[in-house]
């Protein structure tokens, strides 16, 4: 076992129970968990876009991101209205900054704030769907399962069945074999979790479909981050989590998939 893989496993074994415990506790414990993950990820994305020669109003990025996340949790105004205020506010402020290319700066700022905060913010909406955070937990465990099964499946079977890589232009190491193993792992874990802790208002088919959606679509979140890193020339978003890179490296798939699972629960299960 490589030292990097050993570090990855140790961090996962230490961090996963803490994360799940905070999800179950809910309330401000969960709020603090999401705020830490989201703002750390936002900061890492901010550093990525700076490598593309964008200049951003850093203090305002943190303020806007924290404000959006707090709005998801406390609901002091419609999220769409706050997003409009941030959009016009940043655009007006850019008039007076006179640094770099305005459209580049604004694009980087909007991406940094909205991609992270709007996506992670939906975790608060998911947490409100039941008393124990089961929908958040099944989402998180299925994302981890997809990632883990894909990692080991890719190492064991990569390019032994399919000669073409999954998305070689963005992520040269990902294989179709690993991807399909990830889909199978996600479905297996979501179904197993629902057997042990039945999801309220959901059927066994819903649990299978949630696992399938996560297995099929969550790797897109990883590919999106890889696209950002490719533009910035960075290998990892940071080195704060040994064996995992940064917070954004670890939670990029959850960032992408959380809104999709919320939409499934809201409009398909109709909770």
UniProtKB/TrEMBL annotation:
It is an enzyme of class 2 (transferase). Keywords: Cell membrane, Lipid biosynthesis, Lipid metabolism, Membrane, Nucleotidyltransferase, Phospholipid biosynthesis, Phospholipid metabolism, Transferase, Transmembrane, Transmembrane helix. GO terms for cellular component: plasma membrane. It comes from the Bacteria. One of its GO terms (biological process) is CDP-diacylglycerol biosynthetic process. The chain crosses the membrane at residues 12-40, 60-93, 105-126, 132-154, 175-193, 205-224. Pathway: Lipid metabolism; Phospholipid metabolism; CDP-diacylglycerol biosynthesis; CDP-diacylglycerol from sn-glycerol 3-phosphate: step 3/3. The keyword Transferase applies. Its EC number is 2.7.7.41. It is a multi-pass membrane protein. It is found in: Cell membrane. Its main location: membrane. It catalyses: a 1,2-diacyl-sn-glycero-3-phosphate + CTP + H(+) = a CDP-1,2-diacyl-sn-glycerol + diphosphate. One of its GO terms (molecular function) is phosphatidate cytidylyltransferase activity. Pfam families: CTP_transf_1. Belongs to the CDS family. PANTHER family: PHOSPHATIDATE CYTIDYLYLTRANSFERASE (PTHR46382:SF1). This is Phosphatidate cytidylyltransferase. It comes from Chloroherpeton thalassium (strain ATCC 35110 / GB-78).
């Amino acid at each position: 076992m490589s030292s990097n893989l050993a570090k990855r496993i140790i961090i996962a074994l230490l961090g996963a129970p803490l994360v799940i415990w905070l999800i179950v506790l809910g309330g401000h414990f969960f709020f603090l968990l999401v705020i830490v993950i989201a703002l750390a990820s936002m900061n890492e994305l901010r550093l990525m876009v700076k490598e593309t020669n964008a200049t951003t109003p850093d203090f305002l990025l943190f303020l806007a991101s924290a404000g959006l996340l707090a709005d998801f949790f406390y609901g002091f105004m419609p999220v769409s209205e706050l997003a409009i205020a941030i959009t016009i506010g940043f655009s007006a402020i850019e008039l007076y900054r006179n640094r770099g290319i305005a459209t580049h700066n604004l694009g980087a700022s909007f991406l940094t704030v909205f991609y992270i905060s709007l996506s992670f913010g939906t975790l608060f909406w998911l947490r409100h769907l039941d008393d124990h955070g089961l929908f958040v937990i099944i989402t998180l465990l299925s994302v981890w399962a997809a990632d883990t099964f894909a990692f080991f499946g890719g190492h064991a079977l990569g390019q032994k069945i399919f000669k073409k890589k999954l998305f070689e232009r963005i992520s040269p190491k990902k294989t179709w074999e690993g991807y399909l193993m990830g889909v199978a792992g996600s479905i297996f874990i979501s179904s197993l979790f629902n057997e042990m802790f039945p999801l309220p208002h959901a059927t066994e088919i819903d649990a299978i479909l949630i696992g399938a959606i996560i297995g099929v679509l969550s790797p897109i979140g990883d590919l999106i981050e890889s696209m950002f890193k490719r533009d910035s020339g960075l290998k990892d978003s940071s080195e704060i989590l040994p064996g995992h890179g940064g917070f954004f490296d670890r939670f990029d798939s959850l960032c992408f998939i959380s809104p999709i699972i919320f939409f499934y629960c809201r409009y398909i299960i109709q909770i």
